[in-house]
């Protein structure tokens, strides 16, 4: 038998303990740090090259006052007209979100490694999800207008298809992280494929299904404003008309309506998420529990079955408050979807025309071509789009870390401070980037600077929320241990809290960069820089070969960012 010598103990020299040498850093970790430093340098370079300077930002107060004077008093539509366009907007957004969830679930099952039917199915579904992530809503809308003509269906399908990219990816990631034990038990008992998927996989990811759907509904509500510029109905359509004709009083009034809608949706989604996480067991759930009390006789001990009032053993789940709430929620959702179908009048959609025009329309996009102007016009706009994404992400990170930290209950000096910053985050997230970009365009002038500022402001809202949630999920025992050693608040924050959230922070930054690059392709529609301007011009001039080339460029950029994010997440896990 060969004995292994124990590792040498730390040596003591002149009363000082000599620690063993620190292990060499992992090469992959070094690569991650190089990527992060490269992105930081890219963000700084982008801000300098695009001219995002304090003078450009803060030197336009006179223009801001002049613009404010032109928007007051706000000119709201008549109440009936306002309600009509609001209901149409919410109906389109609801159906688009429901469509994306319905399509994303089977795609996610095929894309997840533990539920796919094989390598080909997994690869194909992943490609579909990535393609939907790369193509902006407005590009889908342009194509679908050629197929279906005017109507709400174009907006529903455009936002729905674009949503599949995010929803499908998050669902697939959630499926890959589930507990495999229940699925293996069902399979061992002879259950078929769809039996164990429906009975064990879907129930485990149901909280993620609901939370992601709510988050996507909020995103689609903002996207509906952008689609108004290409003819999709709702508030966005009338807002675009008002701003294009410089009716600032009407335009800002409708922008305020969109802001209020976004904030209300965010608050409702927050309440629902808290209920899903089990923080709302009192209140409504408690009331339902008291109503359902007595429907099932509770067992005296854990080994006894539940019985009905008649004495029969109940084998199905009891009708407690949670089950009643789930049933009411599903019923309400189905009723709302049915009403949305009636409001948008989908029964009049001309599907026959779409089938007839599909191949001729697709043929107009091939072969992709830059018309001889690619390097002079289109390539610089693609670079500018990436620069806007980098610069906006840098602005968002710099401001989101302190804001998100003060919004976290385990870091903020008091509960009142945390609540105040949470409210601030909700308000910031409620402002659509496009509306803010339009306001900044009038104040600052045309170019990428308003786009960067608008995207950076939006990044503060999303990143701050992600940072706050990540900090609140840290292990407080680590902070307590550092605090017990005599560390002050700042030392605990930097040595224990931030170190724990570092992997999540990197993932959040890469996600925000991906969001900003795709969003910057759209702000050019209103003159805020980037490739969006050429997308709109190609649509108006019906240069579909140019449009296809621009789509390919966006797709390549998004895939590069997605590849970097996947690699970094794999290393830091």
Characterise this structure:
The structure is a single chain. This protein has 573 residues and is an all-alpha fold. The protein folds into two domains: 54-62 and 368-572, MetI-like fold, CATH 1.10.3720.10; 79-290 and 319-364, Orthogonal Bundle (MetI-like fold), CATH 1.10.3720. The protein is built from 22 helices and four strands. The strands form two sheets. A two-stranded antiparallel sheet has the order 1-2. Strands 3-4 form a two-stranded antiparallel sheet. A hairpin with a 2-residue loop joins strand 1 (11-13) and strand 2 (16-18). Helix 1 (27-50) packs across helix 15, helix 7 (152-176) packs across helix 9 and helix 20 runs antiparallel to helix 22 (544-572). The chain is globular, with a radius of gyration of 27 Å.
SSE blueprint and pairings:
Elements: E1 11-13, E2 16-18, H1 27-50, H2 54-58, H3 61-71, H4 79-111, H5 119-134, H6 137-148, H7 152-176, H8 181-188, H9 193-227, H10 235-244, H11 248-276, H12 283-292, E3 296-297, E4 307-308, H13 321-344, H14 351-363, H15 374-407, H16 415-429, H17 433-444, H18 448-472, H19 476-484, H20 489-523, H21 532-540, H22 544-572
Antiparallel strand pairs: 1-2, 3-4
């Amino acid at each position: 038998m060969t004995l292994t010598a124990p590792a040498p103990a730390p040596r003591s020299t002149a009363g000082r303990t000599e620690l063993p040498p620190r292990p060499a850093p992992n090469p992959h970790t070094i690569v991650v740090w190089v990527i992060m430093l490269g992105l930081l340098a890219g963000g700084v370079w982008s801000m300098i090259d695009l001219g995002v300077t304090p003078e450009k930002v803060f030197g336009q107060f006179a223009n801001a006052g002049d613009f404010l004077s032109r928007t007051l008093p706000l000119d709201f539509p008549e109440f009936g007209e306002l309600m009509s366009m609001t209901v149409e907007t919410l109906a389109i957004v609801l159906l688009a979100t429901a469509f994306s969830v319905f399509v994303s679930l089977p795609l996610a099952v095929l894309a997840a490694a533990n539920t796919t039917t094989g390598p080909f199915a997994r690869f194909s579904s992943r490609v579909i999800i990535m393609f939907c992530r790369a193509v902006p809503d407005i590009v889908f809308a342009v194509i679908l207008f050629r197929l279906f003509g005017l109507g709400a269906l174009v907006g529903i399908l455009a936002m729905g298809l674009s949503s599949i990219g995010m929803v499908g990816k998050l669902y697939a990631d959630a499926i890959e992280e589930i507990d495999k034990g229940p699925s293996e038990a069902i399979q061992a008992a002879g259950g078929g494929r769809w039996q164990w998927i429906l009975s064990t996989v879907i129930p485990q990811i149901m909280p993620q299904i609901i939370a992601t759907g709510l988050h996507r509904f909020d995103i689609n509500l903002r996207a509906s404003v952008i689609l108004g510029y290409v003819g999709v109905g709702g508030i966005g359509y009338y807002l675009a008309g008002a701003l294009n004709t410089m009716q600032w009083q009407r335009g800002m009034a409708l922008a305020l309506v969109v802001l209020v809608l976004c904030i209300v949706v965010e608050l409702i989604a927050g309440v629902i998420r808290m209920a899903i996480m089990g923080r709302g067991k009192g209140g409504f759930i408690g009331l339902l529990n008291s109503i359902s009390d007595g429907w099932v006789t509770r067992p005296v001990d854990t080994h006894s079955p539940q019985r009905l009032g008649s004495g029969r053993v109940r084998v199905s789940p009891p009708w407690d408050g949670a089950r009643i709430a789930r049933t009411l929620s599903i019923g309400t959702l189905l009723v709302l979807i049915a009403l949305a179908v009636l409001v948008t009048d989908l029964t009049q959609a001309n599907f026959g025309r779409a089938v007839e025009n599909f191949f001729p329309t697709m043929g107009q996009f091939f072969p992709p071509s830059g018309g001889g102007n690619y390097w002079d016009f289109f390539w610089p706009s693609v670079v500018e789009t990436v620069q806007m994404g980098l610069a906006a992400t840098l602005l968002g990170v710099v401001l989101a870390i302190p804001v998100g930290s003060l919004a976290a209950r385990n870091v903020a000096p008091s509960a009142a401070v945390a609540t105040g910053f949470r409210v601030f985050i909700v308000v910031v997230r409620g402002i659509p980037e496009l509306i803010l970009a339009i306001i900044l365009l009038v104040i600052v002038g045309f170019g990428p600077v308003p786009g960067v500022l608008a995207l950076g402001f939006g990044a503060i809202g999303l990143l701050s929320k992600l940072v706050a949630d990540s900090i609140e999920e840290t292990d407080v025992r680590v902070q307590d241990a550092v605090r017990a050693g005599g560390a002050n608040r700042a030392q605990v924050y930097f040595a224990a809290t931030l170190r724990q959230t570092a992997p999540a922070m990197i993932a959040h930054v890469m996600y925000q960069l991906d969001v900003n690059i795709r969003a910057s392709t759209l702000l050019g529609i209103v003159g805020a820089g980037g490739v969006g301007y050429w997308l709109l011009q190609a649509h108006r001039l019906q240069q579909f070969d140019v449009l296809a080339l621009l789509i390919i460029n966006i797709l390549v950029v998004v895939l590069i960012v997605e590849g970097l994010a996947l690699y970094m997440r794999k290393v830091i896990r």
